[in-house]
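retry 2 of 3: previous attempt timed out while embedding magnesium ion. Reduced batch size to 1 and resubmitted. Inputs unchanged:
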Amino acid sequence: MRRIHLLSDLLINQIAAGEVIERPAAVVKELLENSIDAGARAIEIEIEAGGKDLIRVVDDGGGIEAEELPLAIARHATSKIGSLEDLERVTSLGFRGEALASIAAVSRFSLASRSSTAHHAWQIESTGGSAAEVVPTSGPAGTRVEVRDLYFNTPARRKFLRSEATEFGYCDEVVRRIALSQPDLALTLLHNRRSSLRVRPQDQADRVRAVLGDDFADASLALDEGNPMVRLHGFLAAPTFSRATRDCQYVFVNGRFVRDKVIAHAIGQAYQDVLHHQRHAAFVLFLDIDPTRVDVNVHPTKIEVKFRDPQAVHQLVFRSLTRRLAQGRTAVPGDINVSEPPTPSSLPTNPSSARPATPVAGALRQTSMGLAVEEPQGLYRVLFGARAIDLSPPMVAPATREVPPLGFALGQLGGIYVLAQNERGLIVVDMHAAHERIVYEQLKCGLDAARVQSQQLLIPATFSVSPLEATCVQENAEALRKLGFDLALLSASTTIVRAVPALLDDADPVSLARDVLHQMLEHGSNHALTAHRDRLLATMACHAAVRAKRALTLPEMNALLRQMEVTDRADQCNHGRPTWMQITLKELDALFQRGR
Ligand code: ADP
Ligand code: MG
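retry 2 succeeded.
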């Protein structure tokens, strides 16, 4: 053991860097926040080698006086607060005075700045935290920060950095967050001299479209609610634009991107009713609140906040979103859909079903379920024989086989349930949950046998990808092939999907491919096919499964029942809910007080 001694400033800064500057993206975030605090209208960001070689941020903000340059890179030096009172009502993004000191301690660092009153710019350089003299330099009003060879003096840290593309992906995400929250700021982002983002000042809606793309913007519902103390505004994607991961969830509190449990919980509750349990909502939400009602000083990277009145925030978010989602959805009539019987002329028609042929219209629109439809006429007769009095002779098959466990379909209820009859009584099947389970089990078997059938798309689909997603496509070509996909990069930001697993050829190929990529990104590519295989397959199955409200024909319903009978674990869906129920004749009799 050594004796107790004070740590050197350099070591203190390196320790702080470990906390505040965990990767190049954190440098980008801190530098951008400084530029915004300095009132910049335009910021240029240049990155090389994922930020490992160079991060340069140039702004046109207020600048720093020459004599303050050494202080700017000193620890605990800030121009943004001066007292506890200031801290309690802070409106700037920075206030801890440790970012530049931390960055300078683990890089070759240069800070050049010209304030509006100075005749020229001044510059200070620092190598691994030891600073040189302030010297004159050239440059326009504003500030230029260059961070080279990040972690060059802390090699253990440098080793932990991921690939260039991955690190750049994180940087890109940081810039996008800033871009979303500062629509009147012009931003350019270059990686290895290639442009990755370029936005001019615009209004909030246009900025959201520029940053998150047309798909999100077209699906989004604008929101603006609140009172003088607190305002919630932004955009919610309609539930149909749901995602497999939380990658499109942005919450800003007073302009700062945060992860907040209170808000997340309220959003989750608001979407609960309208979103499939396994899917994630997409949104960009801004909460503007009196700064004295929120504590931003709870985490070194300021990613968390604490509300003075969390309940009020929860309520505002939950109520506003619930209301907006309700308005946004078009009402779906929940009528009972009685499908046509399998042999139109032979079975007696129910007079009450002589309504306009809505089920038929539905049937024309619907896509195939991908289940083998085989109508066992003979078996049908076992159940319906007594009623099928006018079956023509060739149709009357001998009733030799038994009624299958799940019986035969009678019709569809509310577009959600399949009703069937077996020997014990009524069977009610949640068709979405059941089909999802079937596809999931089939995918598992296929993958185990290395035989996931692939289906070429008639019309290949393209979609835009982020740098992170693009790397994922490249790095996982083999894994994707095993899953039955044919995905390729057309350009740095465009991916084409040419084939999908045959079981899923019904699904929207783009959202399917996106979800699979996001799952791979979330769990790390190497693990996606092992540890997280089942989750990945469940995500895929979810795309295939028949959606609620889709009209099925009787043969399709029967095919579904037969598949359920031969599928493992078919009694519950992937999330543990039951897929079907039996209601016996006895129970029905009791309900109707028969036989008393
Ligand atoms: P903080 O942002 O918490 O104050 P930093 O270490 O990030 O701490 O920055 C220290 C100080 O340097 C800031 O308070 C600010 O006065 C000054 N500064 C940093 N970057 C800029 C910039 N781009 N333009 C003007 N001043 C800056
Ligand atoms: Mg700062």
